[in-house]
Every structure is written in C-alpha cells, then in structure tokens.
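Re: [ENG-882] Designed sequences occasionally contain unexpected residues at chain ends

Forwarding the minimal case from QA. Structure tokens:
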C-alpha cells in the first residue's frame, strides 16, 4: 500500500472551473486506474473553524495506491498528464507545472469502510 497527501493551490477566480476539472479527473482515475485504491479531492470547509486557517484555494488530495509503481503509473499516465496540460494553469505554478506539496504516509493503524461513499 502506498499512501500520500498532496496539496495544490487554485489561483483566485479559477475555483469553479478547477473544481469541475478535479471532479472529472477523479472520475477518470476511478474508471481507468484499478490500482488507485483511494483518490479523494478536498477543499477546506470555511464554514467550520480550522486551526490554523487553511489558505484560500487549497486543494488536498488523499490517495492510496496498490504500490509505488501504481502511483508512478498515475502521475506519468495519460489521464494525469492531460489534466496538467489542460488545467495546470489554473493552479499555483512552479517552473510551468502546478506547485505541489507531497507527504508520503506510513500506515500505523486504522481501517477503511468499503460501504461508505
């Protein structure tokens, strides 16, 4: 199991199109990448107290892959590459690509309920 949290930042005034594009990305990954076991895309809920307050435009990905090779297949694959090419400019960029923070996780405990959507 290969788990991670990644964060991107949507540029101001691009939130609606970016969220729609991310929803479509998640659907394509679900349909075409069976070794991507969990692919969740979140934005902060500013109606609730957050400590510290997250930045506006933040996108948090929680992803679980079968293994590292499956993750590499995702980030180097045609679905993700096409997404970055078409929508990458909607996000904070570094050297022409979305600026990404990445935290690899080592699962210590817990569970996943298969009946929760």
């Amino acid at each position: 199991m290969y788990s991670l949290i990644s964060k991107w930042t949507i540029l101001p005034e691009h939130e609606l199109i970016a969220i729609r594009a991310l929803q479509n990305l998640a659907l394509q990954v679900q349909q075409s990448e069976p070794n991507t076991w969990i692919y969740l895309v979140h934005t902060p809920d500013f109606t609730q107290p957050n400590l510290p307050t997250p930045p506006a435009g933040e996108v948090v990905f929680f992803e679980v892959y079968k293994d590292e090779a499956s993750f590499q297949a995702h980030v180097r694959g045609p679905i993700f590459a096409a997404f970055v090419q078409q929508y990458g400019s909607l996000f904070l960029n570094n050297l022409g690509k979305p600026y990404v923070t990445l935290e690899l996780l080592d699962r210590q405990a817990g569970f996943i309920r298969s009946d929760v959507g």
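QA comment: On inspection the terminal residues look reasonable. The two ends are 20 Å apart (CA to CA). Proposing we downgrade this to a documentation issue.
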